[in-house]
Design goal:
- The N and C termini lie far apart (70 Å).
- The protein is elongated.
- It is α/β, with parallel strands linked by helices.
- Helix 10 packs across helix 11.
- The strands form two sheets. A six-stranded parallel beta sheet has the order 2-1-3-4-5-11, with helices on both faces. A six-stranded mixed beta sheet has the order 7-6-8-9-10-12, sandwiched between helices.
- The protein is 41% helix and 16% strand.
- Helix 4 links the parallel strand 1 and strand 2.
Amino acid sequence: MSTATVSYVLSGRAGAAGPGVAEATAARVLASAEALNYRPNSAARTIRTGRSGTVQLSLHMLSDPWSLAVADAVNAEANRHGLTTLILADGDWYTALDRLESDVAFLDAIGSDEQTRTRINDLVKRGQRLVVFSEHLEPEGFDVVRSDALPGCEIAMDHLLERHTAIGCLAAEAAVTLSATQRTRYSAYVQRMGDAGIDPAPSWTETYTETQASAFAAAVRLLTGENRPSAIYATTDFAAIAAINAAHMLGLRVPHDVAVIGVGNTPDARLIAPTLTTVGPTDFYERHARILVDCALAKDPPRGQLHEFEWSLFPGASTDLDAPPSRSR
């Protein structure tokens, strides 16, 4: 039988509207494929169609609830359209994309330096479709997802300042280092405290690296130091969750002994007890997944589009003094 008939059957279209294939013929094709142990050659298919059927995600911290939520949402949306999700775990997104093309690649937490721009432009020129998460890059042949956290961080601080003056900060090391030259999630803390006429004690700031263990250790230091703050502003949700767990271990009630707020609006914020008050964009993960998959499936290459997400406050029990206190068990 013809190549077209075999292709039509093996692509799953037999019996569909169009030319169609008789059931008996389709059965013969499938039986032959089974006998030959036939499997599609994905490399050959990519050459012929120009599509790989894959979505690649470069996520800088896989244990972060934000990264996990992004991966879950994208994988669910990709599967609905017959696409496979691949996660780049080593962070070397340029080398990975240079070796293995995909229908679209998402780049998280990349810089805006000249080398990064050069690498992105190189990939775009070669036809790689990109969606980049950045607060600084502009879309030039690739899409940019922009979710400016700083207004949300100010909302978080204003929420705590309604009832607290002794506010501590759990900050990522990078946010503190970069705050000397640019606005960061940590500088939002310093600025809002200054606007309220509060001079934060040096012991009210603890830093962590990009691990949950580091965030937990920093939270313990913050909660066991002299002049313990009555509230904690954490620059990520995973650090805020670490702070709640540290408070439980130390026998402190949340929020009555210490209130906690996070940044990111991750699904994990609603899974911890007490639920975490957080700031973040609405419907980010589902909409972000649709942006990626739409880019992968589009017939024409992207010209470059900016997708912006505004931030809001999502109240939880971790700052609600009227809620029953959460105690360690």
